[in-house]
Amino acid sequence: MISVLDILEDTMVDGPGFRTSIYCAGCRHACPGCHNPQSWDFSGGHPMSTEQIMRIIEADPYANVTFTGGDPMYQPEGFAELARAIRERTTKDIWCFTGFTYETLLHNPRQRQLLELIDVLVDGPFIKSLRDESLLFRGSSNQRLIDVPASLKTGEVVLFHPDV
Q1: Do residues 136 and 164 touch, judged by C-beta distance below 8 A?
Q2: What is the pTM (predicted TM-score) of this model?
């Protein structure tokens, strides 16, 4: 089960192309200037099963998937289960937004299981003083778009460059 605030279909702000974005409840980063502070409350969502979410994801054959919030890395088991279902049943790519850094996630076994199922990770906390509206798919210049499979393979961070 995942505590979900909302699921937005056919959004274009959470990664390239049309996406189904799963907004989860709960975040302890509490970044000043966060665009979604209502997502910080861990009790603010409603529980949804992998199967309930998959019905929504599979209903749109064209939209890829984004995990966001809140912070999905506070619910790594639920999102890992969902990511495995997406991998088994679709060809959709998976993006994930988190306030944790890639390097931190590598060293947390619970979070790493989810990390290993993601295509692109948008990492790092939003830092208001580094806000840059010209950046694609992130709010501040410290945040990175990381090609997770390539990074895991090489052992160093490989940045993702979207073709938008």
Answers
A1: yes
A2: 0.94
